[in-house]
Amino acid sequence: MSALVENQDIRYNQQVISIDVENRLLRTSKGDEYQFDRLISSLPLPEVIKMLKNVPVDVCNAVARLHCTCGYQISVGLKTKNIPPYLWWYIYDEDILPARVYSPSLKSPDNVPEGCSSLQMEVYCNRNEYTREELLARSVGKLVSLNILKQEDILFTDIRFEPYANVIFDHNIYEARKTVRDYLFSLGIETIGRFGKWGYLWSDQSLMSGLNLKA
């Protein structure tokens, strides 16, 4: 990945809050403005629409029909390699909040220090539906009680809310998605990635959606 960003002018910690397509300007929360010749966005389609002015009613109605899941990602760092030998696995139990558990350390040993491992648990719910204590007790705590993890092996836990998790493929998605993406394209905004294309793209597919754009 380092080769892709070498010698590139990347501005970090900048939140774009508005897009002026007429003057081809991006404005950030810090008050900075950036002129652009070509605009490629991997942001979720609803977020891009929020940054524009005078959006047609039919486009606003279409973006309101785009739905996705949201939830918490609970990460656990462990000072042991003794974890289930599965890249990801699913849980079907109402008392245990995570629907799926994934191991970044099994994906690549470079993701953790020597002798350690990691797990990430996915809890699909609304923001603040559970307290931090409830999230930990009904995820990490449950795995400890089932002897899948040992409390003394846990180095740290981290909880983050993700407002955009997976696209929901309902009856409205195809027409609504086309309406929104066609409108953005008419303004000169090209969209890429899982939520720019609003599809079930894996990380490699998301990357290729950008690399495959015509120069």
Automatic annotation (TrEMBL):
One MF term in the entry's GO annotations: oxidoreductase activity
Residue ranges occupied by any Amine oxidase domain in the UniProt entry: 7-118
Matching InterPro entries: Amino_oxidase, FAD/NAD-bd_sf
Top-level class of the enzyme under EC nomenclature: isomerase
Keyword check for Membrane: no
Matches recorded under Pfam families: Amino_oxidase (PF01593)
EC number: 5.4.99.9
Isomerase is among the record's keywords: yes
Alphabetized UniProt keyword annotations: Isomerase
Record-given protein name: UDP-galactopyranose mutase domain protein
